[in-house]
Amino acid sequence: MASIRKSGGFTLIELMVVVVILGILAGLIVPRIMGRPEEARQAKARIQLESLDTALKLYRLDNGDYPSTEQGLQALVEPPSVGDLPRNWRQGGYLDKGKIPKDPWGNEYVYLCPGIEEEYDLISYGADGEPGGEGKNRDITNHDVD
Questions:
Q1: 12, 16, 26, 70: least surrounded by Cβ within 10 Å?
Q2: Residue 43, phi-psi category: left (phi > 0), alpha (psi -120 to 50), beta (remainder)
Q3: Peptide bond between residue 114 and the one before it cis (omega within 30 degrees of 0)
Q4: Closest CA relative to residue 141, chosen from 121, 114, 113
């Protein structure tokens, strides 16, 4: 008598072929995805710098000058109490959420007015939080986003 083979599952070879294919795909795709988080952080820093840049320009329109380094970015969310006090500080401040964002690496943005390169400088020191650097540690400034 001939035996009847039931075909209700996968053979070991079929499963091995699928595992190999998945391994090849993972080997090609994962390295590309793993490099993206750092690019996303740098893009987010540029967007935040643009937002702070816009808020500083609105502050200047209302008050005639940018906040001093001493007043800092905090002048965008609450009226300064030191230095030259603003004449027409906008009720509610100049940032939507009412707080100064930290850069994508969790560090404070550096604000200098007068700046080294322009009227003011806004700087994120990148992943290492230190001036200078290459790659993910590269500084990002408001001059990069213009």
A1: 12
A2: alpha
A3: yes
A4: 121
